[in-house]
Amino acid sequence: LWQTPEMLVEIETAWSLSGYLLACFSAGYFIHDTVDIVISRQTRASWEYLVHHVMALGAFFAGIFWNSFVGGGVLTLLVEVSNIFLTIRMMMKINNAQHLLLYRVNKYVNLVMYFLFRLAPQAYLTHFFLRYLGQRTLGTFLLGNLLMLDIMILIYFSRLLRSDFCPGRVPSQQHKDKFLT
Length: 181
Hints:
By secondary structure, the chain is mostly helical.
């Protein structure tokens, strides 16, 4: 984004080699992770990730094969910044370290990062695609994917809020095999 800042505005047409390679690498990651989930027989427990991966692949393939929306693909990858703090949270929960100061600090950092790097870019992209809804067939397809991702991100956000900020409302035995609850 700092090499080609027009990707923030020209989501459909802006292109850079680094953005294109990032979309290719990310598509490869999503393919690898999908195959890993299927091979390790975790499809039932990880169906949400599989749905997310298929939708993400649709977005990245638009950039890879049609050279369109590379900027949009790069913007969607901003969520990975938020994943750093979500992963720290998950590791601390696995180790029952919720009582540590680091966990308490991380839960507030998580909130800020989730807003800045998940909710805000998704809202920006959704606004962009809604503006041009009737004008682009590929854009309409991507808007459908984006709206489904919006729903998933809001569900995950509500789970995060309930788990970290309203822990009395989350049943302790329900979904104990899921890391988000």
